Amino acid sequence: MSVFVREMVLLAKIETVYATDPTLTGANNSILAKNVSLRPMEGDDKSRQLVRDFLGNQGTIPTGEHVVIEFETELAGSGEAGTAPAWGVLMRGCACAEVIVADTSVTYSPITSGQESLYFKFWLGPTLHAFAGARGTGVITTNAQDIPIIRWTFTGLWVAPSDVARAAAVFTAWQEPLVVSKTNTPVFTVNAVPLVMRNFSLNLGNTVQPRLLVNLEQVMVVDRSEALDLTVEVTPLATFDPFALAKARTLIPVVITHGLVAGNTVTINAPKSQVQRPQPISENQGIAERVLNLRPQPTAGNDQFSIVLT
Q1: Which of 138, 167, 217, 227 has CA atoms 20 to 30 A from the CA of 276?
Q2: Looking at the predicted structure, is the pLDDT value of residue 142 above 80?
Q3: How would you label 169-178 residue by residue, b for 16+ Cβ within 10 Å and e otherwise?
Q4: What pLDDT, on the 0 to 100 scale, is given for residue 66?
């Protein structure tokens, strides 16, 4: 029997007990994803390296099995202020805290301790690929005249695939996104200057590693190094001088707000970002543009950025 690539269902849920199935359902835990790529059995193959009196393969022993999945989701709110978006569970699995103010806002910001983990179930046709204890990272991209997205990469502990009846996915919690534009993205400033922006990305920069030892098998976020990459129009230095900012290692705020109505407005704020060496100038439609690379810095710690939905 042939399996159609479209026959995919993806579920994710926060684990109560690490690496233990918290009971996922299509009605409550469906992920509306695109561009899904699954590496279902990562690890190493150990050769026995035996000395024998003839040539030939000896076979290998698989070790360190784990799963890596990459996919994208659209960036939009929940439709109601103070209600977490459907992709919020994925942010929590990327070493971020979720703080909800009823009827007002939902905020995501980085954490170091108390990291949560996810249990995933992914069906391709009749075959279920489950993986446990997953943690990950993401890249938020808001490019002009395009759909804003988050590209996720999660690593989890391997569970043997099996043929199991596919869950019926329900996507009512997922809202339709707005295209990034002058109207739909009313705020974009770098050091309080409203630069003309083509591309924007925030890389959460998590270093995710499986730690597979005796008495411990866990996927961990062991470090992070956030990065902002912006493509903007070149301005006179009197307006915005990236050379002076980079030389002085000045920490500057970067803010972008996308969305127009309560329940579907997302603001990304990196209040103290260090400007890296300016990149060479490029040309688009005869206009000079430049890529700005910035590195969000902590102040008290775990405050390099915030993602606020209102």
Answers
A1: 138
A2: yes
A3: beeebbbebb
A4: 98
Output b/e per residue, 56-77; b: 16+ Cβ within 10 A.
Answer: eeeeeeeeebbbbbebbbbbbb
Measured distance CA(152)–CA(27) in Å, rounded: 22
Please say whether the beta carbons of 275 and 211 come within 8 A.
no
> Going by C-beta distance under 8 Å and a sequence separation of 6 or more, which residues neighbour residue 199?
141, 143, 144, 229, 230, 231
Compute the half-sphere exposure of residue 308: CA atoms within 13 Å on the CB side of its CA.
15
Report which secondary-structure segment, H or E, holds 244.
Answer: helix 242-248
- The predicted-structure confidence for 253-272, as pLDDT tens digits, reads as follows 999 999 999 999 999 999 99
> Smallest Cα–Cα separation from 10: which of 120, 93, 152, 139?
120
H/E segment holding residue 228: strand 227-233
Nearest-angstrom CA–CA distance, 38 and 290: 34
